[in-house]
Every structure is written in structure tokens, then in C-alpha cells.
Design brief:
By secondary structure, chain A is an alpha/beta fold. Chain A has 10 helices and 16 strands. In chain A, strand 9, helix 5 and strand 10 form a beta-alpha-beta unit. The N and C termini of chain A lie far apart (39 Å). By secondary structure, chain C is α/β, with parallel strands linked by helices. In chain C, 17% of the residues lie in helices and 32% in strands. Chain C has 6 helices and 16 strands. The chains are: A alpha/beta, C alpha/beta. Bound molecules: flavin-adenine dinucleotide (2 copies), flavin mononucleotide (2 copies) and FE2/S2 (inorganic) cluster (FES) (2 copies). The site of one flavin-adenine dinucleotide has 22 residues of chain C, from strand 4, strand 6 and helix 1. The site of one FE2/S2 (inorganic) cluster has 12 residues of chain D, from loops.
Chain lengths: 310, 310, 276, 276
Amino acid sequence: MKKNAAASSALSTEIAGIKFQNPVMTASGTFGYGMEFGGYTDLNRLGAVVVKGLSLKPRAGNPGPRIVETPGGMLNAIGLQNVGVEVFLKEKLPLLKGLKCRVIANIFGETIEDYAELAKRLDNAEGLCAVEINISCPNVKKGGIVFGTDPIEAARVVHAVRRSTGLPVITKLSPNVTDIKVLVRAVEDAGTDAVSLINTLTGMAVDVERRRPVLAMSTGGLSGPAIRPVAVRMCWEAAKAARTPIIGMGGIVTASDALEFIIAGASAVQVGTASFIDPDAAVKVAAGIADYVKRHKTTVRELIGSLKTG
Amino acid sequence: MKKNAAASSALSTEIAGIKFQNPVMTASGTFGYGMEFGGYTDLNRLGAVVVKGLSLKPRAGNPGPRIVETPGGMLNAIGLQNVGVEVFLKEKLPLLKGLKCRVIANIFGETIEDYAELAKRLDNAEGLCAVEINISCPNVKKGGIVFGTDPIEAARVVHAVRRSTGLPVITKLSPNVTDIKVLVRAVEDAGTDAVSLINTLTGMAVDVERRRPVLAMSTGGLSGPAIRPVAVRMCWEAAKAARTPIIGMGGIVTASDALEFIIAGASAVQVGTASFIDPDAAVKVAAGIADYVKRHKTTVRELIGSLKTG
Amino acid sequence: MKNRIERLCEITHNKEVSSSYFRIGLKWQTPRIAPGQFVMLRVTDSLDPLLRRPFGIYNVIDAAGKASLRGTGIELLYKVVGRGTRILSLKKPGECVDVLGPLGNGWPLPRLLSSGKNRWGRHDKIIMTGGGMGIAPLYLLAKKIKTGVVLFGGKGRAEAGLTKAFKGHKIRIATEDGSVGKKGFVTELLKEELGPDSAVCACGPVGMLKAVAALADDAGVDCYVSLESSMACGIGACLGCAVKSGAHGAAANRDYRMVCSDGPVFLSRDIDWEAL
Amino acid sequence: MKNRIERLCEITHNKEVSSSYFRIGLKWQTPRIAPGQFVMLRVTDSLDPLLRRPFGIYNVIDAAGKASLRGTGIELLYKVVGRGTRILSLKKPGECVDVLGPLGNGWPLPRLLSSGKNRWGRHDKIIMTGGGMGIAPLYLLAKKIKTGVVLFGGKGRAEAGLTKAFKGHKIRIATEDGSVGKKGFVTELLKEELGPDSAVCACGPVGMLKAVAALADDAGVDCYVSLESSMACGIGACLGCAVKSGAHGAAANRDYRMVCSDGPVFLSRDIDWEAL
Ligand SMILES: Cc1cc2nc3c(=O)[nH]c(=O)nc-3n(C[C@H](O)[C@H](O)[C@H](O)COP(=O)(O)OP(=O)(O)OC[C@H]3O[C@@H](n4cnc5c(N)ncnc54)[C@H](O)[C@@H]3O)c2cc1C
Ligand SMILES: Cc1cc2nc3c(=O)[nH]c(=O)nc-3n(C[C@H](O)[C@H](O)[C@H](O)COP(=O)(O)OP(=O)(O)OC[C@H]3O[C@@H](n4cnc5c(N)ncnc54)[C@H](O)[C@@H]3O)c2cc1C
Ligand SMILES: Cc1cc2nc3c(=O)[nH]c(=O)nc-3n(C[C@H](O)[C@H](O)[C@H](O)COP(=O)(O)O)c2cc1C
Ligand SMILES: Cc1cc2nc3c(=O)[nH]c(=O)nc-3n(C[C@H](O)[C@H](O)[C@H](O)COP(=O)(O)O)c2cc1C
Ligand code: FES
Ligand code: FES
């Protein structure tokens, strides 16, 4: 599949001044550090790879079972296992050098200082185009608070990260809130350059024979096609309230799914759980968007937020 | 399938002093006024029928399309079409007379006075065992506020209904909130006798060819198996916080699904969307629970909240 | 108390009759069926796709092969348009599908058949007008109304192939590409056939039904249309399949009609065509 | 850049070999396969069930029917336990399934085969111990380690039927109901066979593996176990299939191993058996 310059620019999108060759990224935690998929898909055909959430220190994660399938989705309670920011910078990021797709680091901490420190370490990293802040992980209860459900705490995290890095900052929101618009405004006021959503919905599965939760941690994050209608709705609400670009995700499997988000207002999308089913899913989504754009004689930029209501 | 007295009492459950022959009810809005299913299932084998949400005046509902299928679920924006409380009492309720299952009326209003007035009209209705208050419908935006997402407004509704009827009051909660426990406490403090959850999650589907929402009302309520993990989690959280009995629902298709809720803390369950796929679904769920109870030599009452964690 | 029918029916045949159009036969000791009634099929027992799919009853098969409204099996005619119909098209004879039905009202046979001898004193000529897949429920109607005329409109040859079964009836065809019959829309044929004594029974895409209804209205004759809508339950419980009723319609407090239980056949003037 | 293998493979056969146990053949110009590796199958293209299902590679079929590790097809041996395996069992020859693999490490053949001549100076006797369905990945291993002994433990006759293919190998069987071979657990047989020069390769239920590992530990010999875990991706990306590593295990900052990419075969002392 060769793309000429015109077609490729019809697919490109821009977020916080960064240009992406197409609007399809991989979602954090579903694509490892990128190279895991190297043999199964063409990373050069992605808009960006968002790597597994990084913490200051390596983290071992939660005991198993960590995942369970649910109707049209899955629950996970990985516990944010990761190699830590230092190993990432030394061993993982360099492997992605020279690829046409961009790389975004996803970070999380247990304190605001953690977030700030992480942002600082990533600041001058070669090959990173942006930092995505995960304030919405429902699995780690340490410290007690879930930053992402409290607009004030969310704003404090964003503010701290904003001051610690020159990289564009994307804030990733949790769907487990009454009003997503309040969170969008809070993180925008705190200086985020873009908003991504949705992270997983908190859920639970019970093993009725053993009368125990299936997951060792009791609850986990629900992802996959099952959550897509909630994700599209929240993206639409967020896009209407936002001044900054929106990156939409939640249950995207096909190009048509991705287009729902883009038409509802997302400047880019992320493919998560679908990569488990088909490691080539994100590339196929990008190819399908290219077909749609050609068939409808339009561009991705024209499609963003083109939803007609009423 | 004959049930002897022992088996039947092993299945029975109690909510607000009312005894139900088994813990399986039909969910409001998914079972009409009961008789629609008369030819397809044996109403006598249900714990209770919860009828379509009633308002003071008949309501025409929303324009179509009102429903759309989604992965493992569906969105609906019926707009609470109903015959109104008077027609219900005169024409619908009497048809259910003489059945072994109980009948619960589900009500909603646009003002607190509406709710109070509705509760009053139903107060002496023969054949009703309880009133379920829908404070969580995401479809009707009239008046601006969604009672179910604001603990203070929710409490006001419950308080008003509580004062207007001698019937046990069940308050049905919305899942579209940051912390379900806050709502549970608010409606309990206001005097509800039981809590039912979850109502639908707000969602949206986009027709990418027409670049329009599929539903005429743009958004709708997501129901069906897709939402079950969220529903089980919320029931579990609610049950831990609650002093009153919980009625669990959201995506129940099989007896095993229902048992997830019961083990997580629900005293009864409601079957919703599944009745569209199989009009006999709720009865099959009840039969499956009977099998489980027999196989495990236990009772429904023992199963309630028997989840072991940690 | 459980007496209506929802059951696993064995597939007797499932053949592609024309490109992407299939005819499926289901073993089913049917109750009496009215032409225009439909069934809801569950095409999979997975949760995706989740909901049943509605299909008009195309034919009733009785032991003697006669045009009975009661039989030992039914046939459906369907087009593969999405996942549900694709799954259905892959099913083999001997496999079973879960059938809920017969559902809906169907065309008002007694009223239509009384042709001129009843108090309405018209309906001497029943014009059955089908567009594309909309021809399906008209077959059973045509079997009963032998004297009527069948008009068919379709895109081209593939769709026109659906009319083969109608030989023995007076049938006229229009195709958009002119490959079979008259070139143009079926409404052209309808204009030629419509008279003051006609009644129209129509099924097809909304655009076509709208045009047919307008013509019938102008001619001052009754027009019964069979509508489609997204459905979840098929039995009047979910209120999902609503269509708006027109000025002549139901009581003011009941602005919407359910396609599944009030329909799928409606008198065209009871429908608010603007809202469709 | 896209060079690893994920593709639609045609089913050549899919037969019930024993009650609810099936053997399926898939056409696949395989890369070199290590005994103990597995594949992830997508059994449906519906979204329910959503995830792929892991299955050990039971056999590699090469043109000449030889015990090659490279071939024109593979066979899997599976038991119907839920929806995914039921859907798989209904598939007919000629249909295709989407296969991702080969995945995981497999047993360390070179180390095992060097039997006594290597610097570890032991492994003169490889004891392959399978419990129930756990026999599947041992077949390919046994084909390569002709001198080894195969021990099988199962519930009864149906499961013991799985060992038929192993004729030509030294095989001993224990069944819980005593219907075939020795009555009791496979660990009884293992106790009899274990010697200071043995190495153990085992696959089966966790309880059995735990007991096998304990016996091997007591005897001071290497024990390689193949573990199972819930999996989403199969390629080390989701971190869903973690098992806790034991005291002798990996670095402190890496408490968990991924069954799909670090395993499924682990040295038993690298596993924290308490946490399983
Ligand atoms: C009362 C009634 C009778 C019907 N009779 C027949 C019949 O005899 N033969 C036949 O082939 N079809 C008939 N239909 C339409 C049939 O139900 C749909 O084509 C079918 O449900 C599509 O299922 P799917 O999973 O293949 O498509 P989906 O994957 O659900 O959808 C694929 C595409 O088809 C469109 N679509 C979905 N449902 C409908 C619908 N109800 N009407 C029109 N377009 C739709 C969708 O918008 C989408 O673009 C009837 C519908 C109704 C309501
Ligand atoms: C590396 C690996 C290799 C495997 N090799 C084989 C093999 O060669 N042959 C074979 O038959 N099976 C094998 N399995 C197990 C197989 O993957 C499961 O039996 C299968 O995924 C079940 O799918 P299902 O949809 O039928 O069951 P589900 O509907 O998903 O579950 C049904 C029941 O099976 C249980 N179950 C689900 N997954 C597993 C699992 N991974 N292990 C044990 N129980 C499970 C569930 O808890 C549930 O009780 C292997 C698993 C792994 C991880
Ligand atoms: C196994 C798994 C691990 C995840 N880990 C992270 C993570 O580390 N950081 C993060 O921000 N989101 C994480 N997510 C959330 C996804 O990035 C995404 O927001 C969510 O899965 C919804 O998209 P999907 O439905 O396409 O998967 C994870 C999701 C899954 C399924
Ligand atoms: C078509 C439809 C109509 C509904 N109408 C009502 C209603 O009138 N009142 C109400 O409280 N809940 C209503 N609900 C919500 C259900 O009662 C139930 O809470 C929800 O569907 C989740 O359960 P389920 O996944 O089993 O369907 C409706 C749901 C559907 C699908
Ligand atoms: S489909 Fe449910 S009311 Fe018509
Ligand atoms: S299954 Fe995803 S890491 Fe092992």
C-alpha cells in the first residue's frame, strides 16, 4: 500500500503542534514498549506508539489472576507493572529509534512529586514527542486517592507535570466520574495541551463456584468493544467542552469504530484491547480510515467533530 | 418442574418486609406491563414483575430511532413512553391479579412534586407490593437536572415519595456517578427501604456514513451483558455501604450472571435486556438459581453477600 | 400459560436465490399465519450480535404444498446486509435457529378479500407493490389474493430475480437500470394501475413507501404499508420500534405506534411520513 | 518488518478422539517449532468470546510424516471446557481459524538432549509427566526425546485414551479410578522412576505440577514445568498472564514472569508455588 503525499496529508492530524502521519495510536498498556509487536505489525504505519505506563521505580504489579474476559470486553488489574523510567530510557526507547511513528510516554505516580519527577526525567529524552499523564488508573489504591476523579487533584498533577517538562502534555481521563466536562476544564485550566479518554471503567467479575472475585485484586478496569458507546459519548461531551484537542479511545476494533470518535470530536484515536485480538489491528484501523477518507473525498482534519445533531 | 416447600423457601428472599418466592424480577422498561410476556413465559414463576416507568400523565416518548445494538449490549432512548399512572391502575394492573409473582411499580417525574403525587396515587393500589423510584433516567433532560447524579436532589425525591406512600420504597440508582456509595447513603438517610442498581450507562453510537448520532436523541442508555462487570462492581460497593437490601441488575442473562450479583451482596436481581433476546429469560434464571442452590446445598439468603475477598 | 411460540426450528434449506439474496426454509408446525406477519430470529447463541433479527414471513409450507396459512414450515427471503444476515447465510440444513413468532398484525385479509361486497364497497383491485427485499411478505399475500396485481421495483436484474416465484400472478416489473421490465421506479407502474376501486398493499424502502402512499392518497384509496424499524423485543415491550402516527392517527396521548405490535402493517394515513 | 506469523489456517481434520477431547489439524507451513510452544487461536470473528484461546502445539506434521519440528501443518489436542472450545469443536475441515504463533519458549531441547555429556553431567533419564490435557505438549517432546519415559495421570479411561498416540514410547499410566494402569496419582509413578540422573518435564493441573516439582526438588533434579494462565495477548504485551517467581527467581525488581513470553516452560524452582 503506497500512499502519495496528498493522501498521506489527508490522513495527518495535529495535536499540540505535533504532526502525526495518521490519527491512529496504540493505547498505553496494550502495546508493551512497542517492540513486542515488531514482528506482527508495521510500526511505521502507526500515528504513534503510546508505551506502557511508567513509574519512577520499576513496579512488580499485582498478583494473578490479572485478567478475565467479559462479554465484549475484559477486566484487567495488572497493577501498572513496568520497568521503571530509567530502564525505559536506556533499554526500551532506543529500540524505537528511526521509526516513522511517534512515541508517547505514559506516566503515573503515587504522589504529585512522582509525576513531576517523571516528567523531568523524560524532558530531554530523544525520540519522545509527548507525555501522557495517567491520572485515571483504578487499580492502584496506594495513597488512597484516585487523582482522576477529583478535579482539584487532577489539576494539581497536570500543573506539576506542566512545569517540569517542555514536552507537550496529554492528560488521560477516567470515565468513572459523574461529569467528564468538569475534569476536562480542570486539566485544561491547569495547562494540559490535550486530553485523552477514556481509561477503563471499573468493573468486577465473580467466580460463582468459588464465591470469590475472579481477579486477585477484586476489581479491575473494563476495556474493549463493550465500553465503546460510553467512550464515544464521553469523547463527544469532552470535545464540546474542550479548548484543546481530544484523543479518543475505548473499544475501537475497526476503522468505523475509530471514525465514530473522530466524527464526535477526537483529533486522534488510540487502539487498545483490539491489539490483543489482532496485533495488526491499529494498522488496519489506519488503513480503513484512509479508505474512508478517499471514498468520501475528505480529510481527517475535516472529519474531526463533523457530527451533525438535531 | 415442581418445587416442594423446602426448595421454594430455599429460593425465597425478603426486601423491606416483603417476601418474594424467588429473587428474580424483571427490570422496568424491559417487560412492558407484564402481560406482553404472558404468552411467552410463566409469570407465576417470577419473583416480581417491575413494570415500565410510570408518569402522572401519559407520555409519548422520543422520536426514532430509539434503539441501536452495540457490542454485547444496546442503547435505548425510549423517552419513558408510558400510558400514565391512571391508565396503568385501571387497565394494566388488574390484568396481573391472581398471579403468584409480585408487582412493583416504577415511577419517574420531572419535579419532586410529580414523584410525590405519583406515590400517593399508587398508595392504595391493590396488587402492588412496592414502588421503585427511577431517579436515574438519562434520557429526559426536561427541567435540566438528573436527580440521580446529585445526592441532595436524590434524597429530596426519596423523602417526598417516602412521605406520600405506605408502600415500601425502592430507589433505583444511576451508574453515571463518581461514587455510588455517596448516593446509597443519601437515599438511605432519606428513608428508602431498598436500593436497586444499576440503571443504564449513558452512551452514544455514531453513524459514520451519515455523520450523525444513530439515535434521534443523540445519546441513550447502555444495557445488556456489556455492562455487567460495571454493574457487579457497583452492587458490591453499594452492598458494603448499605444498611438496606440491594437489588442488583445490569446485563444478567444466565443464572450464573445473577449469582454474581447475589454473592456480591444483592438480595434480589432484575433481568432486563435479556428478556428481549429470550422472553423466558427471567424464568430460566430463576430455575438456574434453584439448581445452584440445590447443588451447593445452600439457600439464596445464605448466598447474599457471601463473597470472600482477599 | 406459555402458549405462544418461540422455538428451535430446523433448517430445511438455505439457498442463494440471487446474488446475496437467500431463501431459507424452517420446519415449524405453524399456527395460522397472516400475510405480512414476521418472525424474530436469533442467528447465534453468542452475545454478539446480541439481538434477534426481524424477517417477514415469505411463505408457509403445508404438507400438500398448497397456499395455506397454516403449515409444517415457513420460508423467509432475506438479503445479506450485515453480520446477522451473514451468519444466517452460513447456516446449513439440519442446523437449528431460534424463532419467535408469528409476530405483528399482517395485512387485513378479510377486509381486502371482501372486495366490493363489503360496506366500503371498493377494493376491486388489490395492487401489491414491493420494492427490493420488500417483495418478501407480499408473496404470501399474493397467494391469497389471486386476483390482484403485483408490482415490483428494484435496482436491476439481481433484485428482479426475486419475482420468479410470482409466476401465476399478474406481475409487472420496473428496474432502475432498465435491465428487466420498465426502466424507472415502481411508482410509474403504480400510476398506471391505480384506479378509484383499488387498494394498495406495499412494502419496501421508506422513500418508496412515501411515494406510494402519496399516490394512493391522491387517488383517495386505502394504502396499507408494511414498515421496518430497529427492533429489540418484537412483542411491544421495549417500545424501541416506534414510528410517529399521523394526523388521522391514534389518540393524542399516543403519538407513537409500535411497528412490531401495532404493525408492521399500517394504514398509510395513520403514519406521520414527515417524521420517518 | 512484519515477519512473524498470524494467519488464517485451514482445518484439515477436527475429530473427537475421546469423550470431549478433540484433535484438530491445521495447514500451516510452520517455522521451526520447539516442543512446549503454543499458539493463540481466534475461534470466532464475533466479539463474543472476544479473546484468543491458547493451545499447546501437540504435533507437527511434515510432508513425510516424520517427527520434524518444521512442517506443513500442526495438530492441537484440546478439551471442550467452555464456549471457545465448544465453538472450535464445531468447526469443519475446510473452514479456517486465525492462528497466532508459535509462541513461548518451549522445553530447552539442547540442554535436555545433551543427556550426561554436557557440563551438568546428568539428565540421563528424561521423565515426561503429563496430567490430563497436560499430555498435549509432551507428545512433540517425546517424539524428540526417544529415550525418555512418559508418565500419564488422568481421571479414568476417557483421559487415558489420550495416550494412545504415544505407543512406541515407554509409557506408564495412572488413573484415579484405576480403570487403566495403576490406581492413584501420577506422582506415585514418578516416585518410582525418579533417580539422581533424571530430569523432569511436566505439564498438567497446578496441583499436580506442585507435587511433581516438590518430588523433583527432593530428588535434587531439574524439573521443567509448563504453566497455564489467563492470557490476552500471548506475546508479552498485556502483562496479564503473570506468575510470581520464586526465591531463586529473577531480579528483585521483576517479581513476576509472563507465562506467554517468559514461559510457558519454567524451571520449577523459579516459580513461587505458594502464590499459584
Ligand atoms: C418487520 C420487519 C421485517 C423484515 N423483513 C425482512 C425480510 O423479509 N427480509 C430481509 O432481508 N430483511 C427484512 N427485514 C430487515 C432485516 O431485519 C435486517 O436486514 C436485518 O436485521 C439486518 O441484520 P444484520 O445483522 O445483517 O445487519 P446489521 O449488522 O444489524 O446492519 C447492517 C446494515 O443494515 C442496516 N439495517 C439493520 N437493520 C435494518 C432494518 N430493520 N431495516 C433496514 N436496514 C437495516 C443497518 O443500519 C446497517 O447499515 C425486516 C425488518 C423488519 C423490521
Ligand atoms: C499456554 C497454554 C497452553 C494450553 N494448551 C492447551 C491444550 O493443548 N489443550 C487444551 O485443551 N487446553 C489448553 N490450554 C487451556 C485452554 O486455553 C483453555 O481450556 C481454553 O482457553 C478455554 O476456553 P473456553 O472458551 O472453552 O473456556 P472458557 O469459557 O473461557 O472457560 C471455561 C472454563 O475453563 C476455565 N479455563 C479457561 N481458561 C483456562 C485455562 N487457560 N486453563 C485452565 N482452565 C481454563 C475457566 O476458568 C472456566 O471454568 C492451554 C492454556 C495455556 C495458557
Ligand atoms: C491490559 C491493560 C493495561 C493497561 N495499562 C494502562 C496503563 O499502563 N496506562 C494507561 O494510561 N492506561 C492503561 N490501560 C488503558 C488503555 O490504555 C485504554 O485506555 C483502555 O483499555 C480503553 O481502550 P480499549 O477499550 O481500546 O482497550 C490498560 C488497558 C489494558 C487492557
Ligand atoms: C428499552 C429499555 C427501557 C427501559 N426503561 C426503564 C424505565 O422505564 N425505568 C427504569 O427505571 N429503567 C428502565 N430501563 C433500565 C432497566 O430497567 C435496567 O436498569 C437496565 O436496562 C440494566 O439492566 P439490563 O442490562 O439487564 O438491561 C430500561 C432499559 C431498557 C433497555
Ligand atoms: S421491538 Fe420492542 S416494542 Fe417493538
Ligand atoms: S498474555 Fe499478554 S503478557 Fe502474557
